[in-house]
Amino acid sequence: MDFRVLTIFPDLFVPFWNHGMIRRAIDQGRITAAAIDIRDHADGRHRVTDDRPYGGGSGMVMKPEPLSRAISKAKEQVPEAVTVLLSPRGRVFDQQAARELATVGGLILVCGRYEGVDERICRTSIDLEVSVGDYVLTGGEIAAMIVIDAVVRLLPGVLGGADSAQKDSFSEDLLEHGHYTRPAEYMGEAVPEVLLSGHHGEIENWRREMSLVQTVLKRPDLLESRPLDRRAIQVLKKWGRTIERIVDAQDRGCADPSSGDESKG
Ligand code: SAM
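That is the input. Now the predicted structure with S-adenosylmethionine docked in place:
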């Protein structure tokens, strides 16, 4: 898969391309990745890429012509690419979006700066706007790195362990179970015994169960929108009964609110 990033700060991507999984994916020929400097497509000696907003107001806006030329250059290199503008008003990027983008031939990622890009670029040259969350960054570069990282690790053969990406959080719309490594005891806390048992079936069951528990505790919204199989329902009911038992026992032990001390209720 081919990635082209359009930015006024191409140097930010040098360390990104040169480390870890992205480096390996490039070396193995699974991806090509390059930053295109928008300034190289700007006019004049000063290579200006921004200008004041029509209608007044603070901040600058990225001019359409350099962006449009830079996008054309990227499309020459990767004709089949989807052109994505990183933008706080875009589709919020999640694992499903990463899965969808991992199936396309290439990505051209346009990084805004200042107040953003001239609106006409969005209409004429952008296939999709993507936000990495409901907050505002100073520029699209970090957002582009997030998208590239999440997409590349889904490409066939990129991750070391054949099934690592399949077991990640969100791969089944569930959070992942906890992980443990040596030492077997740390700060008085032991590794769950089942993980030392060598019993693969039980370890798998435990991991699945903990995955459901993590999800119900931290992101119950994920379970609401997802069909659960019989086993998952049994596990959640079991945990539900345990929680109910603990709460009931505590409730029975509570001071009677009518006794006057309501602050303990
Ligand atoms: N004025 C814009 C607004 O209120 O929506 C914010 C512009 S922001 C300071 C500059 C650039 O950072 C944007 O054009 C976009 O490329 C990038 N950016 C900021 N927040 C982002 C987010 N949550 N997701 C993706 N890109 C973002």
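The chain has a mean pLDDT of 93.
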